[in-house]
Amino acid sequence: MDSEVVKTAHPSGTTPSNNLGQEGRRLPAAGIAADPNRIPLFLIAFVLTAAILLVYGPVKEFEFLDLDDTGYVTENVHVRTGLTWQNLGWAFTTSEMANWHPVTWLSHMADCQLFGLNAGAHHQTNVILHVVNTLVLLLLLSRMTGDLWKSAFVAALFALHPLHVESVAWISERKDLLSACFGFLAIYFYIPYARTKRSVSYVCSLCCFALSLMAKPMMVTLPFLLLLFDFWPLARIKPSSPWNRDRLRELTGLVKEKIPFFGLSVLSSIMTMLAQGWGGAIKPLETYPASVRFFNAIVAYIWYPIKTLWPRQLVAYYPHPGFGLGFTEIFGSLTVLVGISYLVVRYARQHPYLFVGWFSYLGMLVPVIGLVQVGSQGMADRYSYVPLIGLFLMAAWGIPELLAGLRHRKTLLWCGGILTLAVLSLLSARQVGYWRNSTVLFERALALTDGNARAHSCLGQARFQDGRIAEAIFHYRESIRIHPEYHVVHTNMAKALYAAGNIDGARYHLERSIRLYPKNPVANTNLAIILLADGDSETAIALLRKAVEDAPDKPKAREILAQTLLESGDPKEAEAHLRHALRYTSTPRDSRVMLARSLLAQHRPVEAIDLLTRQLERIP
Question: Which domain holds residue 305?
C-alpha cells in the first residue's frame, strides 16, 4: 500500500544520516512508535487480528494428524504429562523427533497442562501465535522503515497467504511459529540498538535469538539478515560511499558486533546436525547425491515465488523429485535465479529494498533448501513462513514505485491491495479446510501428486484407525511399492496385517523394518509379541531390551518385558522396569498389579500388600 506522506528524494534510496526515514520523515528515538498518531496502527492491528481469526476460526474443530502430531503430542508421554521438573529436564536433553528444540517441547507441555488432549485448543494456540507474529512484524517494519502502510501490507500478506496455512493449521509446526516469534522479537530489539547502541536492547535481541533457535533452527541465518537491514532500511551502510579503509572499518565493525549472533548460529547448527543424525533424519549422499540436491535447490528457489504468486495445488507433502528434474526446468530456474540476483545487485543503490528483500528470501531458505537433505520431501509450504517476507517487501515497496507517475496511482494501489488480500483470504480459508483431519489432508495430497509414498502411508494409518483394515493395507502396499526403503510404512503394514490375522506377513514386514532401521522401538516390540506367541522368549527378551534401550521412556516395551521376565523367573529386573514404566504408563493399575507380583516373587509381601492397598484406594 502507498504512504500518504510526501516523499523526499535521497540519492542512495536509503535513510539519510540525520535520522530521517527513507521517505523524508524524521524517525523517532529508539523504542518510540514511528508514527506519532498511533490510532492507524491500532486499527490495522485490529483488522489483521480479525482477519486471521476469521480465516483460521474453523481449526478449533480440527483433529490431531497422523503426521508427526503423535510424536509431538498424543503419544509422547513427556508432553502428555505436562510441565513437571522431570519433563523440563527431558525437554533440554532429548533429541526426539530428530531435533533439539526445548522451547517447542515446553510449549506443547503447557498446552497439555492446560487443555489435555483437546486438539482444538492446541490448534487455537497456533492461531494466537500467528496473530502475535503478524503484529510484531507490523510493528518492527513500521519502526524500521517509518512507513506504516507499506509495513501493514507486508504484515497482511504474511497473515493471509495460503502458503502459511501449513505452519498455522498443523499442531506439529508449533516450532515454526515459535521460532518466527522470537526471531521477530530479536529484530525488534535490534532496531534501538542499531540507532542508539543501547546495550540492553542488544542483550534482549541476543536472548530472543537464542530462544528462536531453541524452538527451531530456521532463523539460523538471522545475523546475515541483520547485516542486510543495516544496509536498508537502517542505513548503517552507505551504498554511495567509496570503497576505502574507512568504509572497510565500518563494515568490519558491523560484522564484529554480530559475532555473538554468529556464535549462537554455529552452536545451533552443530546441535541440529547431531540431533538429526541421531534420529536418522539426514539422508545420505547415496540416497540423494550432491548433484540431485543442488538441482532441486535451484528449482525450489523459483518454485516458492511461483507458488507465492499462484498459490494453487498446495499439499502437505511434496515428494522429492530425485533424478526426475528435466534440463529445461533446471536451466530455466537457474537463469531466472541468476538474472534476478544480478538485477537487484545492479540497482541496489537506487532500489535497496529489492536487494534486501531478494537476498533475505534466499538466505532465510538456506537451512531448508535441501543441500543438507532432511526427510524425503522436495519442498514444503512451511519452509516459506519467514522467507516470503523478503518477497513481500519487494512487492510492498516496489509496486508503488513502479506505478509512480500514474494519474490514479493511489486508487490503483488501494483497490489492488484490498482485492489481493481478499483473494488470498478466500484461498487460505479453503486451504485451512484441508487440514481438518488426516483423511481429508492426504486424500488431497494423493489427488494432486504422483508417487507420494508418505501420503499413502499416512492415509493408510487414518484408514487403520477408522477400522478399515483392507483399505489401510492397500495404501501401505502402494507406499511400499513407491518407496520400499521407508521403514515406518513396514511397521504400520505389520500392524494392519496382524489385525487382519496374517501373522506371517506381519512378521516379515517387522523384520524388514528393523533391517532398514534397527533403532525402531515399535517394530522391535511388536516383533517380540509375535515371537512370544511362538514360544521364543529368549529372542523376544533381546528385542524388548533393545526397544527399551532405544526408547527408555516408552512404557509398553517395559511392561511386556517385565511380564516376560516374571514368567522367566527374573522378578528383580521386572521390578526395575515396572517402576520406570509407572512414571509414564496410561495403564498404571496393570503395572502395579505386576509390580506386586514381582515383589511377592522376591518374598516381599508387606510391600506388595501396601502397593495393592494404595491401588484399591485409587479406585473410585
Answer: 39-433
